[in-house]
Amino acid sequence: MVIPYEQKDTILHVENLCVSYGDRIILQNVNMVERDTIREGKTQGQVIAVLGRSGRGKSTLFRALTGLEKPSSGKVLIPDFNKVAANGKQPAKLVQEGDVGFVNQKYTLFRHKTVYEALWFAMRKSGFSKAEKEDEIMHYLKEWGLEKHKDQYPNFLSGGQRQRTAILEQLLSSGYYMVLDEPFSGLDIGNIMSVKKSFDLISQRHDLNTIIFSTHDIELAVELADSIYILGYPPDDKGQVLASGTMLKHFDLKELGLAWQDGFTESHHDCVQEIKEIMLRA
């Protein structure tokens, strides 16, 4: 059953993105368009999964989405919230480093800063007063189960606690956008549940909050995402697979009636199987 929703302004526009290293083309003609999703009576952000086999360019795509990698051609656009909306629409800007939070698989943290100090540093450009920063940080620490660990250094945190701290650092410093590279990799069931809860907390905070993540767990992607992109190697005119990544298919799980459901239905399983078949061919 399709849960009612409405889509507003474009919040992410990737147009004909290409990334090359010398003569080697890593990504070619990658296109993505995502819009602000509104559900009546519920704050609903966007959760976007990028799936693909190893070596197909997911990490390179994520670096381009976060402004860490300059495209050879094409562009990545997000709304420019520092400008006044014109005719009801927010002006767009080319993404730059710092606009989009990025959490890699290592959950890199400052070794010499406690959890509290790291989050305080993340808010250094927020424009908030000292009291407002204190309130914001303590709110997140309590909501994310880190209040008792606020004075600990990274070496004394569990893997799940380090990951939550890394996500919060980016959330407090980068606004609405968050890219997570393989956030579920190597986690036990308890930490997987913790990350899923983190997704909910981010999404429910603001309707513009947008999570983009990669995973090799297709079932988990279909369960959590409302939009899935398949990145892989396309065939040429002769059926030979080309060694540069592009978007092979987009699954709009909202439109398919698979997003935001309580259970994993037969339709979800069918979607998983279709994704597997596409990935195996590419």
Kindly describe this structure.
This protein is of the alpha/beta class and 282 residues long. The protein has two domains: 6-97 and 181-186 and 205-280, P-loop containing nucleotide triphosphate hydrolases (Rossmann fold); 106-177, no CATH class. The protein has seven helices and ten strands. The chain has helices spanning 58-65, 115-122, 130-143, 159-174, 189-203, 218-224, 266-280; strands at residues 6-21, 24-38, 46-51, 73-79, 92-94, 101-103, 177-180, 210-214, 227-232, 246-252. The model has no long low-confidence stretch (mean pLDDT 90).
Largest sheet: 6 strands, mixed
Classified in CATH, the superfamily of the largest domain is: P-loop containing nucleotide triphosphate hydrolases
Radius of gyration: 19 Å
Count of domain modules:
2
Written as H for each helix and E for each strand, in order along the chain, the element string is EEEHEEEHHHEHEHEEH
| Strand order of the biggest β-sheet | 6-7-8-3-9-10
Low-confidence stretches: none
pLDDT averaged over residues? 90
CATH level 1 class label of the largest domain: Alpha Beta
SS summary, helix count: 7
Give the CA-based shape. globular
Through-space gap between termini: 31 Å
Let me know the number of strands. 10
For this structure, the CATH topology of the largest domain is: Rossmann fold
**Proportion in helices:** 25-40%
Helix/strand class: alpha/beta
- Share of β-strand residues: 25-35%
Which second-level CATH architecture of the largest domain applies?
A: 3-Layer(aba) Sandwich
